[in-house]
Queue: 4 jobs
Job 1
Amino acid sequence: MTTPTLVGNPPRVGGLDISLTASGLAWPHRVAVHGLKGLTTLSPGPREHQLWRLAEQLFVKISDPEHGIGQNPGTRPVLVVVENLPTGRTAGGVVSTEKGYVYHEVIRLLHYHGIPVLEVAPSVIKKYATGKGNANKGAVIEATARRMPWLLTAGDDNACDAAWAMAIGCALLGQPVVDVPKLHQDALTKLRLPAAP
């Protein structure tokens, strides 16, 4: 059996799974993980500044990983797909509130700079990756290693989620970077590309 490889010239799509200490970032050719270690142990004043700093860093990294925002508009993504925040009883607490701030600040910055954003539920990402919307992290990691081995995720679940978010964006633009069964593709049926901000 042939190992899958990235073929052609895929669209400039970014995938983002936001975390305070280990956000996953993905593009068709590579993945990265970024966060601020120790952020959650800081006192309120320094912590607020670091949350803003983290949002700015994530925006810069996802919007132009090669040059930094403003240096080369031609390399900016045509779309960034962001894994949506969880809802329900597991979404409470201070850390989730702070993660929500970072999440919305990154989206605000992307919109301000004219980069379209698509927010996608975690269950949609899992369904596209594995065929099951309730798949566990291990199944998503395994699917990433099997279907997108050129993305060296090192088994990081945040990087894998970001990779599948990016893959969803490429598929919606008509240039899929990964071949998945019809059952997986059904995850895309209710998604619509956003208008330019």
Job 2
Amino acid sequence: MTRKHHHRTSLWTLSLLFLRLGTTAFGGPAAHIALMQDEVVRRRRWMTEEEFLDLLGATNLIPGPNSTELAIHIGHRQAGWPGLLVAGSSFILPAVFIVTAFAWAYVRFGSLPQVTGVLYGVKPVIIVIVLQALWSLGRTAIKTKWLALIAVTGLALTLAGVHELLVLFAAGVIVAVGRLIARQTKRDHNSLIAIAALFLQANPAAAASFGLWPLFLFFLKVGSVLYGSGYVLLVFIRSDLVERWHWLTETQLLDAIAVGQMTPGPVFTTATFIGYVLGGARGALVATLGIFLPAFLFVAASGPLVPRIRRSPIAGAFLDGVNVAALALMAVVTYQLGRAALIDVTTIIIALVSAVLLFRFRINSAWLIAGAALLGWLLFTK
């Protein structure tokens, strides 16, 4: 069967589509991906469902923000290298400008009761949203007892203070090696637990003084190694910027997460907010470039290899391990952030009601955040 001729899309059309999505796409990566599928498959018929799934699968094999990388893949497929840059930038920039405006207001007016009230109401909802994502991702990622054991081990090692990068990398390597051994010998791979002990040795990071270059390198590292979900970003930020380097407080981290959830577009623009809080407009620019640059590079490098990569059982096994370890890291951070967000009876009630609405009735998270923000504002303006 001959392949259907592929019609290229103009850069202007790509730009308009992804600028609109970047301005209006609330709800996190899953919602973004659904909106893109509706636009490029159902409405515009730029590609088939199978072709769209190929691109989506490719984003799961490389680190970085999945929905942003999917936008970059679509741009590259529709308009080549210029399309790669236009689609990705158009999807990211609206959120960057909106988050920067929020960051300016936060730095300028953050101590006002009205702003404090909004964040007071939103933070418990953020914890529930992360828990819901953790539950949903866990049901997909933990497919076997072996992967469940890897997740529990990752949880224990993270609580013990092992560096999160080692946990992620070692989990991927162990599961990939286990897959190789299972294919060759058909033996149980429980003995591979010993490999984990070799890889997962504590590796505490030295304290670092703040500067734009260290800020850029930190977010470049995060954008280069982060698998699983945008929510895993919280793990890296808390581990380095809060715990190790003390550039941020726990409260500032929660506020950054809240703003990232309250605004459309990629969750990774949380980095833009943090960059502005730490270093003003230049800090926002540096952090944004650092965290999104790897996505463009990885898509450019992996795009032509997508068919072969997706068929590799070893690459799939590595990602299975990385994903369950990422869930373990998310669970630890959610617990730690929950202690800072659930500070009284009111915040606990907000969290419980949000959990019922989100888990039972599947209310859109954007509405929950808006409602909690309004409630918090009303409580603090009495």
Job 3
Amino acid sequence: MTLVGTFSSDDQQAGVQSDGIRVRVNGEFAPVLLASAGEADFLCPVLSAGTPLSMTVEVGNRVSAEWRTVMAEAAPGLLAVNGSGRGQGLVVHGRGLAALPRFDRDGMPAIAGETIRLYATGINCENSRERLPLLFVGRGYQPITSVTASAFAGVCEVQAVIPEGIAGPKVEVFLETVRADATLLRSNTISLAVEEPVDHRE
């Protein structure tokens, strides 16, 4: 989650470091992932949907006004290369980013049968077969082989295999999770590049 505000009010603290900004949620400190004088990204606690939340930001001995909201139902999200949540996804395989090469980035399309890794938020990183989300790739749902915690706080690494019969520069991918009331929550849609089989090329 990101809180946006004015966390430094003078020139001396305009370059305040992230370790000088603290966020409290319901009175407890939450891990701050990235912070500046104007915003603070922090890791939300694991609480039930509907739980009241009270948040404050502390810089030195100064405390911000309190901001109140309620915990929303966790919703899945997939990371994109440009940070927008759309377009080329942060999807990698054994040879690099599953994308067409461009002047501003390296890329190599994936191939059918290859294992890919996607990066997701809003899901449980524990690799429980009973709680795995659904993964849509191209034309249908594809089994997820594992979900594990990544090196980044709050981000899970999702592994799956590219199915046969899928190819193109912008193959659509999204996640779905099942809420406690049995309704589906769908993530944003990202894309990846999958190479055409050799016998299909002109």
Job 4
Amino acid sequence: MTVAKQPVSVLVVVHTPAFDVLLLERAAHAGYWQSVTGSREGDEAPLQTARRELLEETGLDAAATELVDWRLCNRYRILPQWRHRYAPGVEENLEHVFSLCLSAARPIAIAAAEHRQQCWRPRREAAAQCFSWSNRDAILMLPYVLG
């Protein structure tokens, strides 16, 4: 029996100081590029979810102090193709935004079950490549949020 996903998730934008951004292509949906994302499990705090998803999807084991909590939440409608993962009647998700700055772009260990490939793109190109409006907006906001 599959447990329904919680409608609470994280978005972790991985970037360099020059704002080159890591993107991952979803395995089950070719052409759907995104940053690290994932749903809360159990009673995890958003920071715990961000650390777990980052490790699962990229192999990056970031300390809690390395992740920047933007204290920004996006509420959005769950796309129809993903609603079956949630309990009946659940149509919206609350997404907590985080970022992680790496010293330079580098290959990461993608989770093959979740992602086909990875790429690093300059901020504006990365934003344009994302299928999600919240991911696109977060990428564009990077220099303004982080200074």
